[in-house]
Structures are given as structure tokens and as C-alpha cells.
Amino acid sequence: MSMFWTIWISVITLGSIIGCYFLLRWCLSNETGVAEGESMGHEFDGIEEINNPLPKWWTIMFYITIVWGLIYLALYPGLGSWQGLWGWKSSNQNIQSLEESRQAREDAAEKGLLVQYDRELDVAAEKFDPIFEAYAQVPIEELANDPEAIKVGQRLFLQNCSQCHGSDARGQNGGFPNLTDDDWLYGGSPAKIKETLIMGRQAAMPAWLDAMGEQGIEEVVAYVLSLSGRDVDQDLKEAGKPRFAACAACHGADGKGNQALGAPNLTDNIWLYGGSQRAVTETLTYGRNGVMPSFKKTLGEDKIHVVATYVYSLSN
Q1: Backbone angles phi, psi at 263, to 5 degrees
Q2: What is the Cα 40 distance to its own chain's centre?
Q3: Is 224 helix (H, G, I), strand (E, B) or coil?
Q4: Cα–Cα–Cα angle for 140, 142, 146, nearest 5°?
């Protein structure tokens, strides 16, 4: 988490707790002009309002919750990137191997920090790791014919990938590609799918407004749309064709893209951020910087092998 968000979260969280303290102090003060225990001059349905302070037990409970909140945030993570004095973690995502994970939990046990969740991780690892290790020995093309492996891969996909690509893996506008067709930015072979999951991807479509100006972008948009068979203004198209030379370095002179760079094919009418004239204009004007995160630490290579098998099966 960046320092900005760490400060943002910390100020709001600590400010809320401190604000509760001052609110409580204000509620305990008598600002009514009526002595405690005397009538406030209000009566409804035979019930008279008396100027009484908060009950002592209620006040004490408020103070306890405020102090408890501060102690908790000092010991455990809760303020942005602050990990707490005890360094507690809910999972072993950042540990590179099972052996290191077990050693870390043994060290934590000596400090009295071992939690039930970690014990459950050990039990799950002993039960399921051999299964994933066996799957990892089978080539993806063969594993894609195993219905049980596909079911496991689908469950992992739903847990880790569906938030962006959708539960049906058909993606959505905004930079989340459809994984069920045969259109791939970086390649759809088993090796390339695994590479994407392990390493992640960082897109780099630059903004062209300063270089081309609004008129130049309008012309290039017309030419780009024409590549996929769209009806466009012919004068703008012809003016945009020579300008497209700046785009050909990534997308190719024919506009068919380059999987080595993750540059999309502009001739198939499949658009990652939308194919309307407005959407393409926005892409050229402001650029795009989509990010596909690495899942190497989150899942490990054996599980990635199974997820890659499921993704491969969707379009094969």
C-alpha cells in the first residue's frame, strides 16, 4: 500500500477514535444551564425529562472500547501498511515455500502468535499439495481433458480471477479481456498463459494528444476504425493513414498487433476498452495502463498450472 493511502487510512481511523473520545467528554459536560438531577421542563405522556448524566457503567464501557481500539491498532495491522508491533499476518502469501512457511509458524508459535488459521493452512497443505504437485506433472494440453482438474481450476479461477474477468471468463470493458475466444494480447498457448499468471502483465499504451493534437487523433481514429471494416469519413481516414506509422511500431503496419508487446489486433473489431469512436479517441488521447497482477506468491506455480489449464480449456 502506498504511503498516501497509509496516511489517509490512519488519519481517518485514528481521527474517528479520538473524535469519539472528545464527543464522550462533551456529552459528560453539563451545558444545559440546568443543574444535574433537576427537571428539563419537558413532559410527555406523564414522563418528565430529568437532567441526568450518562450512567457510569456506560461511560466506562465507552472508555474501554476507545483504549481497546488504540491497543489493537498498535499490535495488529489496521493502519495502512503498518503491520503492527506483533507482525501478525492472516496468511502466508509472502512466504516463498512451504518449508519457510512452517518455519515461520514455528517461530510464531514460540512467541505465542500461532493462530487457528495457520494450523488449518498446515492441514490443507498436507492434504492438497500432493494433488496439485501431481497435476503439475501433466502437460496442460493433456490435463485439459481431465474433468476433475478442470473443476479444480474453475474453483481457483472463481476465487482469484472472476473479479476482473467475470465468472464466465468473458471479461468486460475497461481492460479485462475475454478469455473464451481466440484473441490473445500476449498469446494463448499453455506456456504463455502460465507466463501471464506467474509474471503478471503491465500494459503501456502512451497518450498521443501532445504528439498528434486533437485533429491528428481524429484522423488516426478514423483510420483505425476502418481497419476493422467500419464506415468512416474517407478524408479523415486518408489523412490518418500516414499518421498511423507512429502506431505501427507496436501494432504493426497492417494493424494486426504484436503479442510479444501485448499490442492488440486492431483489425478484428475486438476492443479491450470499447470500440466506439469515443472510446478509441479516449485511448489515443490519454493512453491506457492496464495491469494484470502476478499470482506467483498468491497461488504458487502448481496451482497456477491448474488455473492455466482451465483458462486454456475455455478457448480450446
Answers
A1: -85, 120
A2: 55
A3: helix
A4: 100
* Count of other CB atoms within 10 angstroms of residue 149: 23
Are the C-beta atoms of residues 306 and 143 closer than 8 Å to each other? yes
Residue 69 has what DSSP assignment? H
Hunting for cell 495502463 — which residue is that? 289
Whether the CB-CB separation of 6 and 80 falls below 8 Å is answered with yes
SS3 281: helix
Grid cell listed for 254: 497492417
Contact 261, 250 (CB under 8 A): yes
CA distance 133 to 12: 45
Q: In 29-44, which positions are buried (b, 16+ CB within 10 angstroms) versus exposed (e)? A: eeeeeeeeeeeeeeee
Residue 62: what are its φ and ψ, rounded to 5°?
A: -60, -45
CA distances from 41 to 34, 49, 54, 315 (A): 10, 7, 19, 77
- Pairwise CA distance, residues 132 & 303, whole Å: 6
The pTM assigned to this predicted structure is 0.64
Q: Which alpha helices (DSSP H) does 34-146 contain, by range?
A: 56-75, 98-110, 116-136, 140-143
pLDDT in tens, 225-264: 999 999 999 999 999 999 999 999 999 999 999 999 999 9
- Cell, residue 16: 474517528
